[in-house]
């Protein structure tokens, strides 16, 4: 007995010395919006120097203002590189606390015999496993007009999982509405928003004739988390992780930016990074992330089937509605007028719900240059009639770590935007 006690106390003391989590603690870290020096004469790459000092660059690619999260002991070195800096948050750790605890799925029988997730799902954030449970539970309530779909496998072997929803024409009978969420791992509000789209389409089909019409007109393919490894990593290790978890032999840095990895115009410079340590690392070869391979294959299948009427890549933050092109600010897509018309309707519909103001325009000239981004590829190679990037709330106050209290208002106003798009395209 004494021996057992000693062993137990040894085990306890060992447990106390081994860290139980390697999760980054952002307590005391600051979020800053810094103004970059105008065209510096030297060959110094100030943005790269800032990125090396910062824990994360939140909006990599923006040419004037960078939003960064920086450890307290690096603040002085970083601000010395820039012409101006404004504090967005004095304590990123406190922002993270406002996201609340991860909550499990709650079910309700409101929509029929089979219990499906209730609307309280959209009042908290959730674990990766619970997001899969949500999709499975939702689908189980509507087996006649939905199925779980998969579109490839991640670096670490997770399945890219989504839901296919159809109406009275039957499965696969209508043009596709393709929606991706969470390609950037830290953009948690986009998981919630794309799931809300699926939840609304299915749970309102029987009771709301306008929703029924939307579902009867199209086949929906919604993948709430297209970067599952990155998303899991934001929950286990680093809340502000962006990329996937792919390695390269030439570097100890991890991760490709899946949204700089699409093949169309991938080879051009200035819209992504060739450095594996940067937030926008494009990969070694066009389309060389397994996630992109899966997504690309699905795009080709839908293109060669009933065609893609609308593609939405849901991101945060910034409140933008963006369309091609990202790769060149001087090239105008031939359907620019149609893109602008639908974009303006979506902008109005979102603003009408709770006043949230979005900026609209072509991706490169409105926000920044991007090569290998989804919308350029899916417009040009996927032959989508419309391909948009939506950057959801906010404009930097909370950034990616939107408080739990803003989930419900965000998903509702964005749903209004989706309804507007679906009735306009
Ligand atoms: Zn993003």
UniProtKB/TrEMBL annotation:
Extent of the signal sequence: 1-15
Keywords: Hydrolase, Metal-binding, Metalloprotease, Protease, Secreted, Signal, Virulence, Zinc, Zymogen
Domain named Peptidase M14: residues: 124-425
InterPro entries (alphabetical): CARBOXYPEPT_ZN_1 (IPR057246), Peptidase_M14 (IPR000834)
SUPFAM superfamilies recorded: Zn-dependent exopeptidases
Molecular-function GO terms, alphabetical: metallocarboxypeptidase activity; zinc ion binding
CDD domains assigned to the protein according to its UniProt record, in alphabetical order: M14_CP_A-B_like
GO BP annotations, alphabetical order: proteolysis
GO cellular component: extracellular region
Keyword Protease in record: yes
Major localisation: secreted
Location in the cell: Secreted
Similarity comment: family membership: Belongs to the peptidase M14 family.
Protein's recorded name: Peptidase M14 domain-containing protein
Organism, scientific name: Massarina eburnea CBS 473.64
